[in-house]
From TrEMBL:
Gene Ontology molecular function, alphabetical: uroporphyrinogen decarboxylase activity
Stored Pfam families: URO-D
Name of the protein: Uroporphyrinogen decarboxylase
BP terms from Gene Ontology: protoporphyrinogen IX biosynthetic process
Gene behind this protein: hemE
Source species, domain of life: Bacteria
Length: 323
C-alpha cells in the first residue's frame, strides 16, 4: 500500500531532501525503499516503490506530488485538447523502472515483487479534479455531461495502465495490482457504465503474461461483484465488509469464487494488541471462506504507525496461518 514505508525511520532517512517523484526515478532509492519493509517485517511480497501518477509524469503531464497532499495537476482536463499529453509510456520513457524492477527481482530472491498501476477512474479523478478530492464531483459531472470526453480519457488511461504494467511485468514483476482506490465513490450503475469496461480492458491486456492480477478499491462493498467481473484474479477488500461476506457478494451473482486480499482496519494499528489480536483471528477465520486469502491492511499504513506493531502483526499472521 502507498505510504507503507512512511512510518519507517529508514524510509524518512533515505527520502530526506528528495521529492517523491524524483525518488521514483532513482533506482538506488526505489530498490532500497522497496526492500525496507521486506527486510524489517519479513512480509511475503514486496510492492514496487512508485506512484500511480508516475507514468503520466514520465510522458510530460505537468504534475507534482505535494508533501502532505498528494498528486496535483497543473492543467485539469476539461476538453479533448487537454488529452493530448496523456499517452502510454514506452519502455524508453521509464528506463529507471525497468532497471529498478530487474535489480529488485534479483535481490528479492524467492519473494515476489508486485507491480502496480492506477486504474482509469482513480487516475482520471486526479486529472479532472486537479488533485485529491472528497466527493469527486467534477469527475462524476464530466462522466454524465460529456460521456464522449469521459470515455476518451478513461480509454487513454487504460492504455497508460497497460503500458506501465507491461514494463513492470516484462522486467520481472511476478504479480500486478490495479488500484481503483476511489471507485467506491460511484454507484454500481455508474461504475458498470463508465468504469468497468476500461478496467476490464487493462486486465484483458495483461492476461497474456499469466501473472496474478489483484484489483483493489476503498469503500467498494457495493462494487465487489463488478470489480471481480472486471477480470481480476484476486479481489481486494477494505475493512468495511467481512471477507466471508465479500466472498458471498462476489459469487452471489454467479461470479467465480476468487481469492481475496485484506482486510484489517489501519486505524486499529494504534488500538493496542488486546484489540488487534482478536481482529487478526477473526479476519483469518473469515478468510477461510475464500479460495485463498492474502492477509493485508484494508488500506495504506498511516505514517504514524508503530513499526513494532506491524512486525508483531506479520509474526502473528505467519504463526497463526501456519497452524
Ligand atoms: O507504500 C509503498 O511504498 C508503495 C508505493 C506506492 C503505491 C502502491 C505509493 C508511494 N503510491 C502508491 C499508489 C497510490 N498513489 C494510490 C493507490 C493506493 C492507495 O489507495 O493507497 C493512490 C490513490 C495514490 C495517489 C497518492 N500518492 C496519494 C493519495 C492522495 C489522495 O487523493 O488522498 C498520495 C498521498 C501520494 C503520494 C505518495 N505515493 C507514495 C508515497 C510513499 C506517497 C507519500 C509521499 C510523501 O509523503 O513524500
Amino acid at each position: 500500500m502507498r505510504q507503507a514505508g512512511r512510518s519507517l525511520p529508514e524510509y524518512r532517512a533515505v527520502r530526506e531532501g528528495t521529492t517523491m517523484l524524483e525518488s521514483c526515478t532513482r533506482p538506488d532509492l526505489v530498490v532500497e525503499i522497496t526492500l525496507q519493509p521486506v527486510r524489517r517485517y519479513g512480509v511475503d511480497a514486496a510492492i514496487f516503490f512508485s506512484d500511480i501518477v508516475l507514468p503520466l509524469k514520465a510522458v510530460g503531464v505537468d504534475l507534482e506530488i505535494k508533501p502532505g497532499i498528494g498528486p496535483v495537476i497543473a492543467t485539469p482536463v476539461r476538453s479533448f485538447d487537454d488529452l493530448d499529453p496523456v499517452r502510454p509510456v514506452e519502455p524508453s520513457d521509464v528506463p529507471y523502472v525497468t532497471d529498478s524492477v530487474k535489480q529488485l527481482v534479483s535481490e528479492l530472491g524467492g519473494t515476489p515483487l508486485i507491480g502496480f498501476a492506477g486504474a482509469p477512474f482513480t487516475v482520471a479523478s486526479y486529472l479532472v479534479e486537479g488533485g485529491p478530492s472528497k466527493d469527486y464531483a467534477k469527475t462524476k459531472s464530466l462522466m454524465h455531461s460529456d460521456p464522449k470526453l469521459w470515455h476518451a480519457l478513461a480509454d487513454r488511461l487504460a492504455e497508460v495502465a497497460i503500458a506501465y504494467l507491461s514494463v513492470q511485468v516484462e522486467a520481472g514483476a511476478s504479480a500486478i495490482q490495479l488500484f481503483d482506490s476511489w471507485a467506491g465513490a460511484l454507484s454500481p450503475r455508474d461504475y458498470a457504465e463508465f468504469v468497468q469496461p476500461h478496467s476490464a480492458k487493462v486486465f484483458a491486456a495483461l492476461a497474456q503474461y499469466g501473472v496474478p492480477k489483484i484489483h483493489f478499491g476503498v469503500n467498494t462493498g457495493e462494487l465487489l461483484p463488478l470489480m471481480s467481473e472486471a477480470g481480476a484474479d484476486v479481489v481486494g477488500v477494505d475493512w468495511r465488509v467481512p471477507l466471508d461476506e465479500a466472498v458471498r457478494r462476489i459469487t452471489a451473482a454467479g461470479g467465480a469464487p476468487k481469492p481475496v486480499q485484506g482486510n484489517l482496519d489501519p486505524a486499529l494499528l494504534s488500538a493496542g494488541w488486546d484489540a488487534l489480536e482478536p481482529e487478526i483471528d477473526r479476519i483469518l477465520a473469515e478468510g477461510q471462506a475464500a479460495l485463498g486469502h492474502i492477509f493485508n491492511l484494508g488500506h495504506g499504513v498511516p505514517p504514524t504507525a508503530d513499526p513494532e506493531v506491524l512486525h508483531q502483526i506479520v509474526r502473528a499472521v505467519h504463526e497463526k496461518s501456519a497452524r
